[in-house]
Amino acid sequence: MTQILQPETLDEALAVLAAEDEAMPMSGGATLVAMKNARLVEPTHLVSLDRIAGLRGIATLPDGRIRIGAMTRHFETASSALLTGSLSVLRQAAGKIANRVVRNMGTMGGSVANADPAADYLPALACCDAVLTIARAGGERELSILDYVEDWYETALEEGEVITAFTLPAPEESPSAYRKIARVTGDFATASCAMALTADGQGIRVAIGACGPGPLRDPEAEQALIGKLDDPDAVTALAERLVAMADPIDDVRGTADYRLALIPRLVRQGLDDLKKDLR
Ligand SMILES: Cc1cc2nc3c(=O)[nH]c(=O)nc-3n(C[C@H](O)[C@H](O)[C@H](O)COP(=O)(O)OP(=O)(O)OC[C@H]3O[C@@H](n4cnc5c(N)ncnc54)[C@H](O)[C@@H]3O)c2cc1C
């Protein structure tokens, strides 16, 4: 029998997770309940994070950076007035997750902890240079989203750890865009692309999703594109670098070859979106 616990404080939750080998944190339960029903996981304790103050909501920090609590639901992220300009890519990605029911249930922390390679937040957070705060009994650490996914469904998250927040740089006024190709509206991505123009308008940050275990970014290729956004050959060169980094699989959402072919298309479309926003 699984015991469901509803601690009021993070310390209480972390203490149970540290003490019980088979305890799991639960956010919205959007994925976890289905996994449990299918007996993919058999936790002794489900530690709900729902009542813990401080894990929810989006706020501007005194230095202008944005903090998103791990329990923030997708619908809140999709409608946040704080995620503007260079950070609106995250708002756009949240709005493209599944359907209203899932957006009301699912949380950013649960989604990132689950680390589905096709999840919408991973490329959007990578494009924003997000930093995760991860807590465990007796301490916490910070980790770049780019160092977080280690392999297919494998992350740097250790037993007993909980993602508590995401910190994003202060929003810049430059535009950002999220493109997702899926079989039908509301499905996970076959491939996706998150893109933001740099503050001076001369360069881009671009991250590809669903084409490998984690989001793909190539900062060196981004550097090489600075000042050349109107040069189609230079844009193609960046897209080719991302194709070379990709490690997609064949699955029900598309073949690996199809995914590779989508990357240059998504990069071009994302850039068009940014340019349209500038007009
Ligand atoms: C029908 C359906 C369609 C979906 N479509 C999409 C889609 O198109 N795009 C997309 O991106 N996602 C999609 N999702 C996933 C959805 O975004 C969920 O948010 C996500 O799966 C996590 O759900 P949750 O936040 O309720 O976490 P839970 O289900 O509660 O937990 C998920 C996992 O993460 C662990 N966990 C939860 N919170 C934390 C935390 N703070 N720290 C550490 N570990 C934690 C749990 O132990 C569990 O292993 C879909 C889900 C469903 C059910």
Describe the structure concisely for a colleague.
The protein is an alpha+beta fold and 279 residues long.
Protein architecture, described:
This protein is α+β, with helices and mostly antiparallel strands and 279 residues long. It folds into 3 domains: 46 residues, Uridine Diphospho-n-acetylenolpyruvylglucosamine Reductase, domain 2, CATH 3.30.43; 111 residues, Uridine Diphospho-n-acetylenolpyruvylglucosamine Reductase, domain 3 (2-Layer Sandwich); 103 residues, 2-Layer Sandwich (Enolase-like, domain 1), CATH 3.30.390. The strands form 4 sheets. The chain has a 5-stranded antiparallel β-sheet. A hairpin with a 2-residue loop joins strand 6 and strand 7. Flavin-adenine dinucleotide binds next to strand 2, helix 5, helix 6 and strand 10.
CATH class of the largest domain: Alpha Beta
CATH topology annotation of the largest domain: Uridine Diphospho-n-acetylenolpyruvylglucosamine Reductase, domain 3
Q: Biggest β-sheet, characterized?
A: 5 strands, antiparallel
Structural class: alpha+beta
Helix content: 25-40%
Looking at the overall shape, the CATH architecture of the largest domain is 2-Layer Sandwich
Count every helix, treating DSSP H or I runs of 4 or more residues as helices: 10
Q: Report mean pLDDT, rounded to a whole number.
A: 96
Ligand inventory reads: flavin-adenine dinucleotide
Succession of helices and strands: EHEHEEEHHHHHEEEEEEEEHHH
Measured by DSSP, the beta-strand proportion falls in 15-25%
Distance between the termini: 59 Å
Spatial ordering of strands, largest sheet? 4-5-10-6-7
User: How many domains would you count in the coordinates?
Assistant: 3
Number of strands: 13
Spans where pLDDT lies below 50 across 5 or more residues: none
Shape: globular
The Cα radius of gyration reads 19 Å
